[in-house]
Amino acid sequence: MAFWNRRKSLESVSARQSHSALRPTLGWPHLMCLGIGGIVGTGIYTLIGVGAGLAGPAVILSFVVAGLVCACAALAYTEMSTMMPMAGSAYTYSYVALGELPAWFVGWTLILEYTVVCSVVAVGWSGYAGGFLRSVGVDFPEALLAGPAAGGVINVPAIVIALAVAALLALGSRESATVNMILVFVKLAALATFIALAIPAFDANNFEPFAPHGFGAKEIGDAKYGMMGAAALIFFAFYGFDAVSTAAEEAKNPGRDLKIGIVGSMVACTLIYMVVAAAAIGSTRTDVLAASSEPLAMVLRGLEHPGAARWIGIAAVVALPTVIMAFMYGQSRIFFVMARDGLLPERLSAVSESSGTPVLMTMVTGVIVAIIAGFLPLQRIAEVANAGTLVAFIAVAICMLVLRNKAPNAPRPFRTPAATLVALGAIIGCAYLFSSLPRVTIYTFLIWNAIGIAVYFIYARHQSGLARA
């Protein structure tokens, strides 16, 4: 079969090799916490300061724009994941709806997204870890708290946390999901503390001027300023629900559990973000927020709540790894499914008999994440992650429209309301945010995918399971 005609059928995505079957051990509470754990993290704990520097107080509207685009994408993901409850997320949907080459492109993009997201959060975690160590009197060398591009030598805490999360995931999905649930509650308790202490200090004067860099995306140097420029970066703060779709194969009751996990986590996190952002900007000038690598803790120290600031720092140190866990979980499953399909070496799809997880693939992912986190700066990594995510979201929306046309009668436990409008909202919104990214980020993304296309034609096209069949 010519590669441009290769595509999986809806029926075939349920056919699995026995040695590569993932165990269905997760219920909706695990999936919802996986989503919240993936969404609430570096975006609100760390990137709110970066976004405030790009947009000023208008960063609140940046959260609104990014949230609306993600809401459209979340609805598309919910329909597709309940329709095809298999690991692989957007890659699997593209294989069925669009064919092998587009699926490879999406899968290669997801590899970039998830790997880089884990690295972003590891770097963000390192900032809070360094602040916490200083608060308890530990003088950790500054050169070991940042990579070369950020003025250091190597980010040791970021490397350590990446490898530690990979080791936990290798133990088993249910075990790591239970730890994730506990840490999510710690994280939400810390944010509730921040809101309760920051809201009384709310000062409307901190919102003037509201949009110092305008509402569009304006490139200055190698960064995009303005409300939309910040939205293109802050978009990073909202995704995480797509990691839930990678767990579809391990859900006990996919039709119910995935709906609650994806939609529930997205709604809850949008509300949390808006309140936290308003409290942070209302109590502190945006230029002060932008100057801190741990903005929420910094706000509380400025409000003379050193104990609460330390608690926020502790919670970030303890709970930010839930984001790494969610995305490293998703990354290992994308790698796993592509290997199971023959597009990557098939030995990588082997599942441990004791843990029921792809241990080798999980540890490989952990090492790659650690290397990136150890040497690259936060903002540059986040922007590259956003490029991959935006393209993946566009692909899922297109897949939903294609299958509504090609397979209108296929079972759909969840049907997206106003599917065409929702899909167009996701496609147009993501395309605009992609165009709002800095040019160097777009070029990096294009170079990555040029390498991916070369790998496909040199290796994957011939080794594909459909090609050999």
Overview of the structural elements:
With 469 residues, this protein is mostly helical. It has a single domain (26-468), classed as Up-down Bundle (Amino acid/polyamine transporter I), CATH 1.20.1740. Helices cover 68% and strands 1% of the residues. The chain is built from 20 helices and two strands. It has helices at residues 28-39, 42-45, 47-55, 59-83, 90-97, 100-135, 156-171, 173-198, 227-234, 241-245, 254-283, 286-290, 295-302, 306-319, 321-340, 359-375, 378-406, 419-435, 439-463, 465-468, and strands at residues 218-220, 223-225. The chain has a two-stranded antiparallel sheet. Strand 1 (218-220) and strand 2 (223-225) form a beta hairpin. The longest helix has 36 residues, at 100-135. Mean pLDDT is 79; it is low at 15-19.
How are the SSEs ordered, and which strands pair?
Layout: H1 28-39, H2 42-45, H3 47-55, H4 59-83, H5 90-97, H6 100-135, H7 156-171, H8 173-198, E1 218-220, E2 223-225, H9 227-234, H10 241-245, H11 254-283, H12 286-290, H13 295-302, H14 306-319, H15 321-340, H16 359-375, H17 378-406, H18 419-435, H19 439-463, H20 465-468
Antiparallel strand pairs: 1-2
Strand content: under 5%
CA-CA gap between termini: 9 Å
Count of helical regions: 20
Total number of distinct structural domains: 1
Please name the CATH architecture. Answer: Up-down Bundle
Pfam family, one: AA_permease_2
Subcellular location: Membrane
Organism: Steroidobacter gossypii
Protein name: Amino acid permease
